[in-house]
Design a protein that fits this description.
Blueprint lengths: L1 E5 L9 H14 L3 E4 L20 H11 L4 E8 L5 H14 L4 E6 L4 H6 L9 H16 L6 E2 L4 E2 L16 E3 L4 H9 L3 E5 L3 H4 L2 H12 L5 E10 L8 E4 L1 H14 L1 E7 L5 H14 L6
Parallel strand pairs: 1-2, 1-11, 2-3, 3-4, 4-7, 7-8, 8-9, 9-10, 9-11
Antiparallel strand pairs: 5-6
């Protein structure tokens, strides 16, 4: 199982120092990947509080890719419908080239309807599934060297030229997030992976066959399965899944994920103090991740 880290690039206290401390620690310990988190302009509700202070997702992965050449870098997840898909094709291809082919593009449709309005995109909220499907199609077309034409619902162009092409080519890894059936089918039919959030093994299990069936129907390879969740040692009662308890319990839960076919996890310690986050990573590495080396 590969281990990635959700960077402390959001929440109150997130700083350059916290991002640097966390990414340096996982690079030194030989982890697989580091992920930024995405939002632009949220409201004032309790659900949105973690995103009041958040570094730009794309700029953050560029920084980490340059600073830590051993790490793959990604976004968990990029809210695609808040952006122009052609601009994203260029930005993501450029990041992949600059990083030497280390980019993972986690994508999602977004859940914060108000945020769409804040960006002047209120009408797109109800069209975000169709927008993501078209965005992926544009990316594959341009990343593969396609010169046109492309005529979709949201974007249209005739003969064009696009470069540089991603090091990883048209199949630069796109990991699709979400939990409804449309998102699961998108992950299989169009993506290279499925990336869940705050979901335990019991709820993850029924999603796997849906994703795999969609991939088979589309004639695509079986996708990679990834899971993102918060981690905290000890007992914690929350209304969503977290990896908690003593190390042996965490290891057992991770083995349940592995039995489902999950080969990558992205852990979030919800800590922004540089020294504390480094210590948490080191403890998790020695007491939990060590069981999967």
């Amino acid at each position: 199982m590969d281990f990635g880290l959700i960077l402390p690039s959001y929440r109150a206290g997130a700083s350059v120092e916290s991002i640097e401390a966390a990414s340096e620690t996982i690079a030194r310990l030989g982890w697989h990947s580091a992920f930024s988190t995405d939002h632009f302009l949220v409201g004032t509700s309790e659900r949105e509080e973690d995103y009041f202070h958040i570094f730009d997702a794309l700029a953050t992965v560029v920084h980490i890719a340059a600073r830590q050449p051993s790490l793959r870098v990604g976004i968990s997840v990029l809210v695609v419908p808040l952006r122009n898909a052609v601009e994203l094709a260029k930005e993501l291809a450029t990041i992949d080239v600059l990083s030497g082919g280390r980019l993972i593009v986690g994508i999602g449709g977004g859940w914060d309807e108000a945020e769409f309005g804040h960006l002047g995109l209120a009408d797109r909220f109800k069209q975000r599934g169709a927008y993501m499907n078209e965005a992926i199609a544009i990316w594959r077309h341009l990343w593969g060297g396609g010169q046109g034409p492309f005529h979709g619902r949201f974007h249209s162009f005739d003969e064009v030229r696009f470069g540089p092409l991603p090091v990883q080519g048209a199949e630069l890894p796109v990991w699709v997030g979400g939990r409804d059936e449309a998102a699961l089918r998108r992950a299989g039919a169009l993506g290279n992976g499925y990336h869940s959030s705050a979901t335990g093994p019991d709820n993850y299990a029924p999603r796997v066959p849906i994703v795999r069936a969609a991939a088979a129907e589309a004639g695509r390879p079986a996708p990679l399965f990834s899971a993102r969740f918060r981690v905290a040692f000890g007992d914690h009662k929350v209304p969503y899944f977290m990896l908690t308890g003593p190390p042996e319990q965490m290891i057992a839960t991770l083995r349940e994920f592995a039995a489902l076919g999950v080969s990558h996890v992205a852990v979030d310690f919800a800590e922004t103090d540089p020294d504390k986050v480094a210590r948490l990573i080191e403890r998790f590495d020695s007491e939990v991740r060590a069981a999967f080396r």
